[in-house]
Amino acid sequence: MSTLASLTAHELAARYRRGEAVPTEAVTEYLARIDALDPQVRAFLTVTREDALRRAAEADARFRSGAPRGPLDGVPIALKDVLCTRGIRSTCGSKILERFVPPYDATVVARLFAAGAILLGKLNMDEFAMGSSTEHSAFFTTHNPWDLARVPGGSSGGAAAAVAADMAALTLGTDTGGSIRQPAAFSGVLGLKPTYGRVSRYGLIAFASSLDQVGPFAKDVEDAALMLQAIAGADPMDSTSIDVPVPDYRAGLAEGIEGLRLGVPAEYFIDGMDPEVERAVRTAIATLEGLGARTEPVSLPHTEYGLAAYYVIAPAEASSNLARYDGVKYGLRAGGARDLIDMYSKTRAAGFGTEVKRRVMLGTYVLSAGYYDAYYGQAQKMRTLVRRDFERAFERVDLIVAPTTPGVAFKMGEKEDPLQMYLNDIFTIPVNLAGLPGVSIPGGFTQTGLPIGLQLIGRAFDEALLLRAAHAYQQVTTWHTRKPPLEPAPR
Amino acid sequence: MTRISLEDVEHVARLARLDLSAAEKERMRKELDGILSYIDKLRAIDTSGVEPTAHAVPVTNVMRDDTECPSLPQEDMLANAPDRHGELFRVPKIIEE
Predict the structure, then answer these.
(1) pLDDT digits (tens, 9 = 90+) for B30-80
(2) Which of A94, A132, A133, A155 is catalytic?
(3) pLDDT number for residue A1
(4) Residue A189 lies inside a defined structural domain of this protein
(5) What is the domain extent for residue A76?
(6) Nearest CA to CA, how far is A1 from chain B (Å)?
(7) What was the pLDDT predicted at A468?
(8) Has A187 been annotated as catalytic?
(9) A45 is a domain residue
(10) Within-domain flag for A113
């Protein structure tokens, strides 16, 4: 039904440059597609229609005068609602921030606007990025475009679904334990988690500060490279962003992977995983070998402890970060309080959903007197062991290749037990604990047509090599070009 | 084995400033118990002599020049306040009269 919206961002940019289309046409088409399809998919919490059309007209003028800003000028994007946008409501998927209008833009947002990107809207997510399905959004659940009865993954489910359904050319999500890669796998798009410190977290509403990182969802590798290029680099407003030179991510994409050493970790092929996922990933590994890569087994022996360490560290950091929601400076305030402490407790009880309460409780417990060493101290030591596993592996190989998730997108309401939900992230969490870059790309489909994710993991700050290998794979496969079978609902 | 009692839940909820209903407390007790049983597998590993990792990238004390720069306007920072009094955030009474 669409033309411009089905293109990748770099194809769209090429049309602008050749004068075959202007940004207003693309934005108008994307907005129409959101109108037609989002009532089914429900990826957007806010659509910024007037803003988008105004920015598009400005971009049109830049192209007409022969002075576009660069490859993202006029490209329609959307953002996970965890990123602050000045003057545009940023809810973080929570009742407590339902009416919060940030007074500033996140650094990544400011950089994208400076590059000329056009914001279509803000995307649904699990509340405070805590979840793997968007079912913990305080507002509604996003549907998987490949099967509307299933979840898109999470927490960046809206960001993944919007790209999968061609409702944005590119989106940004965040990944604390897999929240970019897992929904990318479930929704059949590319999702890249950069190295910790590669991208500024200023204006990203904090969940677990030592793990959170912003990254793109894209239709192909070249688009992801464009988006990473725009957002990467040190930021004086985030002292954990690292001043490592940012390479030209597109320049090396076509160099191929002849002679590259790929590690295949035995611990990422476990009993109980979906046999179709295992088969697809093994086939993808053979494809990479066919492109000249050499594979060898590697061992990441502490993988099974990563999840347990994560569910101490992330809730601990969250319990501290979320202390700021006290009903004083911004956000919801509950009425009928006896005194200040009572106001805090009632506000937080009314404003936080079940999963957020659970994690705040868990985090407070593991940090409380008498339990700190046994849980938090031990988890931090385990984090060291997980990191060392990767360091040893990367002495022998250049990249690690593995499944992104043990299974494919599950049905809504299927995982009611919190621990079952957490187990989804078993293959993505170790990467966050070690601070490494990881990407999930489409690596096949099940018999019933559900996407399967292939995960590549690299050395710190080696996103360029990750993207090069992913690009080589996409040159000989077509999984990433498939589109979900969506039709506008009959009126 | 039960690790968490209802009293534990109430204590932690007080620390976390969360006003939980009776039903929430009981549900929380069961769920935290299950999650902590899983997390207990961490204790099975000998980590003596292992340094803890607080941060994946070992950066500490990032310094910058102490220079004056613009900050956000006061009115913008007060705009989201649930309750205000002029230039102040208004809160319920803290000290008993």
Answers:
(1) 999 999 999 999 988 999 999 999 888 877 788 888 999 899 999 999 999
(2) A155
(3) 44
(4) yes
(5) 4-259
(6) 42
(7) 98
(8) no
(9) yes
(10) yes
Q: In this structure, are residues B20 and B28 in contact, taking their beta carbons and an 8 Å threshold?
A: yes
* Residue A262 reports pLDDT greater than 70: yes
CATH for B6-44 is 1.10.20.60
Q: Is the pLDDT of residue A491 over 70?
A: no
CA-based Rg of chain A, rounded to a whole angstrom? Answer: 21
For A48, residues 6+ apart whose C-beta sits below 8 A from its C-beta are: A88, A119, A120, A121, A122
Quote the minimal CA–CA distance from B1 to chain A in Å: 17
Verify whether residue A155 is a known catalytic residue: yes
Q: Which residues pair with residue A458 across a beta bridge? A: A399
Compute the CA torsion angle A473, A479, A482, A485 (nearest 10 deg).
-160
A435: left (phi over 0), alpha (psi -120 to 50) or beta: left
- Using the predicted structure, report yes or no on whether residue A158 has a pLDDT greater than 60: yes
Whether omega for the bond prior to residue A155 falls within 30 degrees of 0, making it cis, is yes
Residue from the list A327, A361, A368 with its beta carbon closest to the beta carbon of B28: A361
A130 φ/ψ angles, rounded to the nearest 5 degrees: -100, 95
Could you tell me how many CB contacts below 8 A there are between chain A and chain B?
174
Q: Please answer yes or no on whether A242 and B80 come within 8 Å at the CB atom.
A: no
Subunit contact B35:A328, Cβ cutoff 8 A: no
A80 is catalytic: yes
What CATH number did the domain enclosing A189 receive? 3.90.1300.10
Q: What local confidence, expressed as pLDDT, does residue B2 receive?
A: 62
Query: Cα distance from B6 to chain A (closest Cα, Å)?
Result: 13
CA distance B21 to chain A (A): 9
Q: Is A93 helix (H, G, I), strand (E, B) or coil?
A: coil
Q: What is the pLDDT of residues A33-59, one digit of tens each?
A: 999 999 999 999 999 999 999 999 999
Mean pLDDT value across residues A175-204: 98
For the segment A367-404, what is each residue's pLDDT rounded down to a tens digit? 998 889 999 999 999 999 999 999 999 999 999 999 99
CA A146/CA A80 separation, integer angstroms? 20
A238, A365, A375, A384: best to mutate for the B interface, most B CBs within 10 A:
A365
Structure tokens at A60: 């049109």
Residue B91 contacts A where some CB pair is shorter than 8 Å: yes
pLDDT in tens, A398-453: 999 999 999 999 999 998 888 888 888 999 999 999 999 999 999 999 999 999 99
Of A308, A323, A330, the CB nearest to B80: A330
In whole angstroms, what is the distance from residue B89 CA to residue B97 CA? 21
Taking an 8 Å cut-off on Cβ atoms, the answer to whether B31 and A381 are in contact is no
Q: Determine contact, residues A195/A463, Cβ cutoff 8 Å.
A: yes
pLDDT tens, residue by residue, A465-487: 999 999 999 999 999 999 999 98
Q: Is B75 on the interface with A (CB under 8 A)?
A: no
Domain count, chain A: 1
In a domain, residue A233? The reply is yes
Q: How far apart are CA A305 and CA B47, in angstroms?
A: 12
* Alpha-carbon distance values, A66 to A22, A149, A312 (Å): 12, 46, 54
Of A242, A337, A418, the CB nearest to B92: A337
Q: How far is CA A23 from CA A112, A118, A224, A243, in A?
A: 15, 9, 20, 34
Average pLDDT over residues A286-292: 98
CA B50 distance to own-chain centroid: 27
